[in-house]
């Protein structure tokens, strides 16, 4: 790729560098039952896991692509060219000094060890298919909090994993959940014991470095009765002219009275397909919040979901999407009210610019036996120029008349007068746009830990640079 | 004062928008410390003059010059003019949802007056006293810029910005419109505090003489159909109040 092509592809993507590929095991591209069995064998997994992987693989081969979203882009995925497993380091280290130098450098440049020292309870860092670093604060460990990479979780706590794996998202859910179940590697496993409240967030950082890489992490978080945890996820990749595939599955279980908040800022490069299934089950009086930021990727299809299974449970999904040049963000939320007195709130905000397309796709259902549910859906779109596009696909299926439903949607454009007003206060046109954009995202940003909010604002300011023709 | 370089100098300014000529040769000099008023009916070109001096890109300057302290502004964008010291209090200030007033004020002060002015106790004290001057409560700082503000709140917020940004030239476009008598008094107090006794100049654009009772202009100019047809002292404002604009046409 020439510099010019690179610039065209990257824009101001500041984390698009790549390091030389570093592998101790790299599978040939392409997928078969043999590949699936080999992944399981390398990992020395119990037979039940091998079995479920193989079943999922066969389901994947037969399953159609989703019937919605960006069909044309989906058809462009070349499953045969993807590398399904790449191990870059043979161990998951507890000390950054033991992580291979070039990988450690990558995470240094991304600021992960620094953030860990300052404001995190624990960190897992995944590079390609495997976690390369993992650590949790001792006091949390002493309270019985389990925070491991998923492979270690399966080895050390097979009973818990067996009980919950695929319990929230069966492999048959969709083509990509089947794919993930077949070839999953890495991801986080978290168990928070009864009554334990983890004050500072734990973070997982996912980095794809190699070309044509497929990353299929699998995350399972179980918050036992009355406990709480905030999990933060970040992801980036280098910019290549060929595509990579990121297809994760995240399952959350919030038992009675538990609270899980899951925050994501995905900033994949514009050559990554980001097709992720995220769902949580909230039991009685539990609450699950997805704070979901989508800045990067070529195509994202992601609809964080909550099943409100127990009475009094609460769901909140706050998401933003930024669709720039060549990007389609098809994002939204799903909430199913299965029990009485459950409440939900969905706030979705999207920005489209330079021909990008932001779509909101949402579904809220209320079961017939669920009394007195309250649901609130707000989706706002902001369009920055005439080439860009936004569309909205909201669905509400309410089978119980006692439900109180509110739905608001708006589409707006940045006006010249607004920009002129800010410019008259000494701000360049780019700064003015960044102020408007960051203001638009503010209801999302204020939900993030401060360090993340600052980063996100800087990122958006960077996106506005060079945008004035 | 006449041998000093004027704060603002308009020289035979001809301006149009979408091919229609609006201003037909405006000449005006504002010396340091002077307050001038431009009065005229709707459609006379008052707002065009204000927006043109600030650098609104929609207005085309067909000929003439705009000088700030002797420096030509024509090639500069609005934000560059703001950093040179031009300030416009808008007739219709724009809202920016999600942008907090406190954050916005600090950023604007930093970009116009430099980082030092936007830091520490110096900024906090200046902010506190300016807010008291225009009767804006502290809770205002966490609201979003002009979002859901009443007409009066918007105008007071414009004057608060004027006081903090300390421009060389303040243009006040219909600052009195939509204000009750208390609002006019508060806003006038802010304008006087910002301009009187300073090296700055001000240009007040208005329909009515009401605000001029509280902010005494040194000169009054009457704008009709894009031309200044008469200039005089503060007594001209009173004359207009009495007789209207008919007799000047």
For this entry, give a set of tags.
heterodimer, A: 469 residues, alpha/beta, ten-stranded mixed beta sheet, 13 helices, 24 strands, 35% strand, globular, disordered N terminus, B: 249 residues, Rossmann fold
**Poorly predicted segments of chain A:** 1-10
CATH topology title of chain B = Rossmann fold
Tally of DSSP β-strands of chain A: 24
Kindly state the percentage of residues in helix of chain B. Answer: 25-40%
Oligomer: heterodimer
What share of residues are in beta strands of chain A? Answer: 25-35%
Unreliable parts of chain B? none
Overall pLDDT metric of chain B: 93
Number of helices of chain A: 13
Mean pLDDT of chain A: 91
Structure, explained:
The complex is a heterodimer of chains A (469) and B (249). Chain A is α/β, with parallel strands linked by helices and 469 residues long. Chain A has two domains: 3-302, no CATH class; 415-469, no CATH class. Helices cover 26% and strands 35% of the residues of chain A. In chain A, strands 5, 6, 8, 9, 11, 12, 14, 16, 17, 19, 21 and 23 form a twelve-stranded mixed beta sheet that branches. In chain A, strands 4-3-7-10-13-15-18-20-22-24 form a ten-stranded mixed beta sheet. In chain A, strands 1-2 form a two-stranded antiparallel ribbon. In chain A, a hairpin with a 2-residue loop joins β3 (122-127) and β4 (130-136). Chain A starts with a helix and ends in a 5-residue tail after the last helix. Residues 1-10 of chain A have low confidence and may be disordered. Chain B has 249 residues and is α/β, with parallel strands linked by helices. Chain B has a single domain (8-248), classed as P-loop containing nucleotide triphosphate hydrolases (Rossmann fold, 3-Layer(aba) Sandwich). Chain B has helices at 46-54, 78-84, 101-113, 120-133, 151-165, 181-195, 235-243; strands at residues 8-17, 20-30, 35-39, 60-68, 71-72, 86-89, 96-100, 144-145, 169-173, 201-206, 219-224, 227-232. In chain B, α5 (151-165) packs parallel to α6. The longest helix of chain B is centred in the middle third of the chain and has 15 residues, at 151-165. Chain A binds chain B through residues 415-418, 420-429, 431-432, 435-436, 438-443, and chain B through 54-58, 77-79, 82-83, 86-88, 90, 92-100, 104, 107-108, 111-112, 144-145, 161, 165.
